[in-house]
Amino acid sequence: MKTVIYPGSFDPITNGHIDIIERAVVLFDKVVISIVKDVDKGDSLFSVDERIKLVSDSIKHFDNVIVDSFDGLMVNHAARYNAVAAIRGLRALSDFEFEFKMALMNRSINNDIRTVFLMSHEKYTHLSSSMIKEVASLGGPICNYVPEFVANALEKKYNNEKN
Ligand code: ADP
After folding, report:
1. Per the count of CB atoms within 10 A, which of 25, 67, 76, 101 is most buried?
2. 95 lines ligand 1 (CB under 6 A)
């Protein structure tokens, strides 16, 4: 059985992430969405528990996808699951340099964890969680880019912040 992890902040999950998950499930037997706890950054909009909930609600229809969170080295987390690889999504060329360096560093730490790059649908190649947060904070339309419950959660966050 081949397990893969899909690490990231998922702050919050978008249709771009979901598109990557849909591509991953046909390649691997089990996909673990691995939310980085980023305890040191503390700059995420959603707490880890909130991010886990939004991811769980997004993956309900898959029977081979689960969600977990981790801190520390990604490759150590992957090894705990006996994962053969980690998935990263590639958007524009601008993602490439960072991802390239990260993949080589991870490989030098643990050669048993491969990095697999997947490309989302063209309609999501400009999409990032930070872009969504910016548009949502300004009251712009985001319904084409996130599930409805994510849009509602964002609206709640920003309305509460304003009040
Ligand atoms: P990070 O916090 O590492 O920037 P995210 O949590 O936003 O990453 O996303 C996790 C992974 O999903 C990254 O590899 C990122 O490139 C990828 N990703 C995010 N949005 C998209 C998208 N719209 N299309 C393709 N890949 C994406």
Report:
1. 67
2. yes
Pair of tokens at residue 105:
């560093």
23 assigned to active site: no
Which entry of 91, 107, 114, 157 is annotated as an active-site residue?
91
Which letter does DSSP use for residue 35 in this model?
A: E
Question: Exposure pattern of 80-112 as b/e (b: 16+ CB <10 Å)?
Answer: ebebbbbbbbebeeebeeebeeebeebeeeeee
46-97 pLDDT tens trace? 999 999 999 999 999 999 999 999 999 999 999 999 999 999 999 988 889 9
Catalytic residue at 41? yes
Query: One of 2, 41, 80, 126 is an active-site residue; which one?
Result: 41
Q: State which of 41, 91, 102, 135 you would mutate to test the pocket of ligand 1, scoring each by most atoms of that ligand within 8 A of its C-beta.
A: 91
